[in-house]
Amino acid sequence: MKKYPLTHPTSPSVKIDSTIPIFSTVSSRPPHLTFLQDPANYQPLGTLALPLYLYSDATICDDWQDSNPESLSSQSLDSHPDILNIYTVSKSIWVLLQFGWVRTLARLHPLNRKEVQVRVFILPADVGGQYLDRQGSRDWELVRNLMRHIDRSSAAWESAKLPISFSFHDHPSPLGSALSSHDSLFYIFNTLPSPAPPFNISCPFSRHAIDSLLTNTANILSLRTKLYPYQQRSAATMIKREAEPIRALDPRLEEIDCPAGGRFFYDRTTGLLFRHPRHYDEARGGILAETMGLGKTLICLAVILATKGHWPQMPPEYSLNQRSIRSKVGSLVQMAAAAANHERIPWKGYLPQDLDRCRTALEESVATYIIPPPESRRSRRPTTLSPGKTIRMCAATLIVVPPNLVSHWKTEITTHVKTDALEVLYLDDQAVWTPFTSNLLLYDIVLMSKPRLVEEMSLCSCTDLDTCSCSTRGQRSSPLKDFHFLRIIVDEGHNFSTFGRKNNAVSALTKLHVERRWIVSGTPSSGLLGVEASTAIQETLGGTGGNDSQLIRDILESRRSNGFQVEANTSVRKSAIQQELKDLEKLGSIVVDFLSLKPWSNLKGNDAASWKQYIMPADDGQRKPKSLASVLESLVVRHRVEEIEKDIKLPPLHNRTVYLEPTWHDKLSLNLFILNLAVNAVTSERVDQDYMFNSKNRASLNQLITNLRHSGFYWTGFTKEEVAKSIEVSRNYLKNILSSGKTEHECGKLREGDFHFLERAILMGEKILASPSWMAFSAAHELGLYIEDFPEEAREAWSLCKDEASAPLIMGASQVTKVQNHVDTHLYAPDPASGLAPLGQSTMEKLWQSLAGEESKPGDRFGNNSDARSPILKKQSPMKVPSAYISTSIQKPVTMSKRTISRAKANSSPRKISTQTTSDSTLKAPNTRAEKPTKVNKPPALKSAMKSASIIKPIDPIDSSSVLSKTRISGTASAKLSYLLDRVISLHESEKILIFYEGDNIAYYVAQALELLGIQYLIYTGSLSADRKSAYITTFNVTETFRVLLMDVHQAAHGLHIAAASRVFFVNPVWQPAVEAQAIKRAHRIGQIKPVYVETLVLKDTLEDRMLQRRKKMSAQEHHKAEKSLLDDDVMAQLIQDADFVPLLPEEMKDVRRQMAALKEPQKLFGRVAVGMEGGDPDKDLILPEGMTGLKVRKRKRNPGDDVSGRRSLKKKEKKMAAVPSSLATMIWGSA
User: Fold this and answer.
1) What percent helix, strand, coil does the chain show, rounded to 5?
2) Rounded distance, CA 491 to CA 288, Å?
3) What is the DSSP string of 972-1023?
4) Measured torsion, CA atoms of residues 694, 696, 700, 702, in degrees rounded to the nearest 10
């Protein structure tokens, strides 16, 4: 039937031909007008109260009557522009009446005779489509305007009350008030309803799986571990959503009650209004977002076990005519097997292993479907017919994880799943090829790393099969593309979400055929963070476990606003908006690209829905009605905190800040940075690019602030030449200014008191240069240690600077290590101290010579400075900085060590080198072993480290009468290090300790001290290989050998389980609360059986103290703004600019004992030989993954059933090794 398009009038005053009344009955009327005259086609919308003078028809009376287009006078509308709401609403009514979109009944209002009560009826968008073409019409905007002002209450409809009177004020309708929410993404996420079984489900196999989970039948599930009730509910909810997703209302629509009864469905964004609902199936999958440490991996394994052998459904678009026809009649076994597979019966979970014939028949008759080839673009030319691509159904689950979590999953499978309950294929090792076709059907799980997935989905372009090392073995496609898998689980899936573009991992995932898709992440995006994580960073007095109910409510309420309502600070508002939009776009990437959730993934022209248009907040911060909440509710599986606490109670979490008095050297280090900032600010007069805080110097300033924060632990990055140069520049500037007679106000943007501040900076620099110990530590780049009762005959030979005999000997940690090694290797000699003095002389001479770059002259060993024991240093090349002085304060320090594990026996430590500018500040692998371990293919086996059932106990072979037995380490130059050592010494025998640091040199300083005390440690840093990372975590959790784990705090946010640690230390306050919270949750999680004590070390009354206080007062929006740099917070940036010097006490300058941070109990230096440390291999006590016995390059393994033609004669790396000398090859790839 012909459709009649509507013409949009240019204005309300446009005249149309209305000689025929629109609602009169005329038999010759066109079909669309006949349709429009039927009142049953219209939906009651609501009531309006309009002024009587707007109606030109004087016949408005007490009875209801049709209001035709002429009744509402356009001239009256134009003549009344001063009342905006009346004009706007009346204009919408008048235009919509012209074309029959609305129908009105009017009468004098019984409660106010000066107003006309108007009942409005509207023609829904899904009614009359065969008569009227209204798709894309601009008139829906008029409907939106009408919906914002109409009164939809039944009382107004029945005249029981006056409708909204536009004559007095604009009173928003209930609809409008419900739609203007400013709730943040954080608030919506944390208030989602918890899973609530039981479920009604028709599939008997899925229903049985859910029942087995809810009844926690461990024998049926083959689980070793009993599930908590919340884990049961989460797993059951996952299966319900997978098997029978709910057919839910289109998230763009909301259901609205009609004032006269009934309902309709309204799209607020477009104005479209429907009589009948539109539904879409929810995703077969979603986001498992249980909070950190609550067993998400175990939940996934329970789901896999409960649905073992379940088959995916054949895609409807490929399901027609897919059953194959046999060439001859099959056997009874073959027909039964085909029928079982066609009905998707999960036979793998029930068929006994001894029925080989039945199992073979079932495997051979697995259902398949064919994807037809794409249509040829040159359809007029003859093309070769292609049979299409055959896809086989597969009951396996793909698990894709970050490389550092592969070992974690293997351990979890071994720990929680009974032996032989699951067939698992590990594809993390590049030496393992992907099996072909039928072999993949044997597995229940295919576990692979993210890089391996990307490689699998990439096409092999190798031309020589003998040299090809691709996982696809010379194929143009991975075998994984030939299967339709039951499920895929992406652990830490927030790394797969992208902002503004697709990454390789997302593109790889789209090439797989999978029915059920899950993202596993406690933090799917920055804004999607559990509120309980925020409680972990709160200081506690009694140990509430981090989940105090009132505290959680307070945090939720404080972060309820999405930041659009922040008016006091526009930059904070802008940052909050940008962060929320970025989080939503990343969430959209998961919804559209990975989960393919409709209608968001619909193609253009097929009811496409714009994620940006419906989900993103408007410019004023208003969020679309229920779109975001409904999407999250349909995707996220997560329990609220109060529900978790009903099922499980984690051990108490105690969190406190420890304020320490800075040592003399702490003060000097901090004051040197303040000095540099002061000299720069005054001499540049705070203007132009010379000023460090100029926007163009942001990168350099960020590095300076990072170094300043690290100096709160220890710092030796400045040289005496730099300090002297700063003093010289300052004096020259003041001399020129005084001669010119200018004041601060006449010099750029200087402030009152800046000249005096610069004079104080000069005095501070002079005090620093007058400190012998600072000169020595800075020259040698050494951690300062103070030694009591050192053998007198060797004291002068080892001393870093001139000191009194009664004072503790000042030494560098590297020199103390060498002294200790020398004595400990001669413990059973007649005199273990023999040769200490000559060794000290040669060691110190080599040290100074290497630093000076020239041979020291006899008689001039200590240069011209009578106090410092170093020669005149070789001057460094001037570095171009935005000021007139030279400084390494903006340089990134070079890593002082490459070792990440305790030595297995006492030997010399790698000497530290002076700080140079470098782009690599990460710790490398140990020198004793090249860092490229072999990867694994099977679950890790607990090896020799398990035999270390007790803590290593030291023995004391030194006679108590010997002078060596009295030598003690009495203190260090760092207040934080001394406190940390005291705590480690007192705790390490009974508890394991986790130390978080920022800056790899901090880890090195701590490691140096721990080695001197004979305490074994591991350092977990970003530069380690995935295998070594997993070996460190497993070893620390399982064995008693290593009591301390030092970890880069930025490596702690990726799903690691370190519940063996019950003591957690942060050596510096962490600026980002989310990073700190996730680090704490590495230890405070399921599996933790002890109370967890967290201590953050802060130097009292310093800049880091003020930084921590500022962080505690910041709002969530301010934290988002300053997430990348604390300089992005205006208050913090001002605190740095206004930073003052830390006062120096006169007695500290002269008294060496006042300069050090004393240990509570001095620790003996010699004779700390530990049983079990006599081996030469530092890795001997590690639990290494199976196959990681060396760094030998292995050929790629063949799986059973692989084609022999896929062999390689030589791998690429083997050829490279053959082309270089053996010594160099060993350095690059490691020895065999």
Assistant:
1) 35, 15, 50
2) 9
3) ES-HHHHHHHHHHHHHTTTSEEEEEESSHHHHHHHHHHHHHTT--EEEE-TT
4) 70
Nearest residue to 1175 (alpha-carbon basis) of 1006, 1004, 947 = 947
What type of residue sits at position 1211? Answer: K
Residue the block writes with tokens 């400990």:
824
Burial class of residue 63 (count of CB atoms within 10 Å of its CB; 0-12, 13-18, 19+) = exposed
What is the C-alpha to C-alpha distance for residues 451 and 505, in angstroms, rounded to an integer? Answer: 8
Contact 663, 975 (CB under 8 A): yes
Which tokens belong to 427? 């594809």
CA geometry: angle 993, 997, 1000, nearest 5 deg: 120
| 757: amino acid identity, one letter | F
Model confidence at 1017: pLDDT above 90: yes
Q: Are 67 and 97 in contact (CB under 8 A)?
A: yes
DSSP 1128: G
How far, in Å, CA of 632 to CA of 635, rounded? 5
Q: Based on C-alpha coordinates, what's the Rg of the chain?
A: 38
In angstroms, rounded to a whole number, what is the distance separating the alpha carbons of residues 1097 and 1068? 6
1118/1116 Cα distance (integer angstroms): 5
Q: What span, in angstroms and rounded, lies between the C-alpha atoms of 7 and 15?
A: 12
How many angstroms separate the CA atoms of 818 and 892, rounded? 28
Rounded-to-integer distance, Cα 362 and Cα 851, Å: 75
- How would you write 793-844 as a 3-class SS string? HHHHHHCCECCCCCCCEEEEHHHHHHHHHHHHCCCCCCCCCCCHHHHHHHHH
Tell me the one-letter amino acid at 369: Y
Query: In angstroms, what CA-CA distances link 933 with 277, 385, 925, 1027, 1231?
Result: 59, 49, 10, 7, 11
In the DSSP assignment, the letter for residue 130 is T
Question: How many whole angstroms separate alpha carbon 1139 and alpha carbon 1116?
Answer: 25
Are 452 and 428 a contacting pair, CB within 8 Å? yes
Half-sphere exposure for 1085 (CA within 13 Å, toward CB): 24
Distance in angstroms (rounded) separating the CA atoms of residues 1051 and 454: 23
Q: Please write the tens of the pLDDT for every residue from 728-739.
A: 999 999 999 888
- CA–CA dist 955, 440 (Å, integer): 55
Quick one: pLDDT at residue 949? 37
Query: In this structure, what DSSP letter does residue 149 have?
Result: H
Six-digit token string for 1046: 């030092």
**Sole residue written with tokens 């004779």:** 1167
Whether the CB-CB separation of 302 and 422 falls below 8 Å is answered with: no
The reported pLDDT for the residue numbered 496 is 66
Asked if residue 597 lies in contact with residue 591, where contact means CB atoms within 8 angstroms, the answer is yes
Beta strands across the sheet bearing 992-997: 653-660, 1092-1099, 1061-1066, 992-997, 1044-1048, 1017-1020
Residue pLDDT, tens place only, 480-514 = 888 999 999 999 877 666 555 567 777 788 889 99
Strand partners, 112: 109
Per-residue pLDDT at 1106 exceeds 70: yes
Burial class (CB in 10 A: 0-12, 13-18, 19+), 26: exposed
Structure tokens at 161: 């009350």
pLDDT of residue 917: 33
> Please, which residues bridge with residue 483 across strands?
392
Collapsing DSSP states into helix, strand and coil, what is residue 660?
A: strand
Task: Give me the torsion for CA of 1104, 1109, 1112, 1117, rounded to 10°.
Answer: -80
Q: 8 or 1122: whose pLDDT is higher? A: 1122
Give yes or no for a contact between 657 and 310, defined as CB atoms under 8 angstroms apart. Answer: no
Q: Which of 1154, 680, 1188 is nearest to 941 (CA)?
A: 1188
